[in-house]
Amino acid sequence: MVIALLCSAEGCPVGVEVFAGNTQDATTVPDKIAQLHAQYGLKEIIFVGDRGMITHAVAQKIKGTEGLYTISALTHRQIVELLGRKVISPELFDERHIVEVLDPEDTKRRYCLCRNPQTARREGTTRQRLLERARAQLDKIAGSRRRATEKRLGARVGRVLERTKMGKFIQWQVVEGKLLWSFDQEKIAAERLFDGCYIVSCDVPQEQMVAVEVVASYKKLGLVEEAFRNLKTVQLEVRPVFHKTDDRIRSHVFLCTLAYFLQWHFKQRLKPLFAADGTHKDRQCRQSYRSSSRPAKDS
Hints:
- The chain is of the alpha+beta class and 299 residues long.
- It folds into 2 domains: 2-74 and 100-112 and 205-277, no CATH class; 118-191, no CATH class.
- The protein has 10 helices and 9 strands.
- α2 (56-62) links the parallel β3 (45-48) and β4 (68-73).
- The protein is globular, with a radius of gyration of 24 Å.
- 17% of the residues are buried.
């Protein structure tokens, strides 16, 4: 089953719905937005979703909806497309300041360019490790004294590139039964420029929300991930589901979400009390309401 959870800007759950397990996450977005308009009577909505929720197809489907604005992040392919159109350039990404760029083909579309130094270090380290792994395995293939057919060598190289995911940085060919290969240093250097870089995209008017607020709103998706962690793996444990009928499954999910709704309010009420006396971390009840610190697998 697929659970669609709506949270407020503060992370408080305001709506939940259960879909069949073969439902794609992105397909639930238009209906949930329509539900916000109809059921909650909201005239103006700023919907924040990750790359997997607000896809290009979804964006086109909900485009033009009155009173609706969206905030999401661009995929790597979309960033490359902006580079190709010269809308952005690598030097615009800054670790301290958010640079905002308008799309010349859609002046309502705003791009907030950000760079996270910690993510940059992690991405650089991961890529270097995978490149070294690819180097060791390709050198082993190239150093073999036995000649092989181009088809056989190609299959071995393909397995290496599939495991390391470094194929775009490697040039190779088979000459007289021997493998010749090298790294494309220009592509590696170009990729390194964008380590830790990401773009938050929105169509919210500037007078309503400045760039810093746009990026902060996108980062608040972590509150939704926290809600899912609590529903799935902390005290509530919505799965496994032992019910057989659709109505009972929906009731089960609703009760779990209602429990998290109460838990969320408990935390908000208790937080200032425990923070004030300086000993809140040692209170016995913290185990009952404390959120999981483990990273979310999905949202």
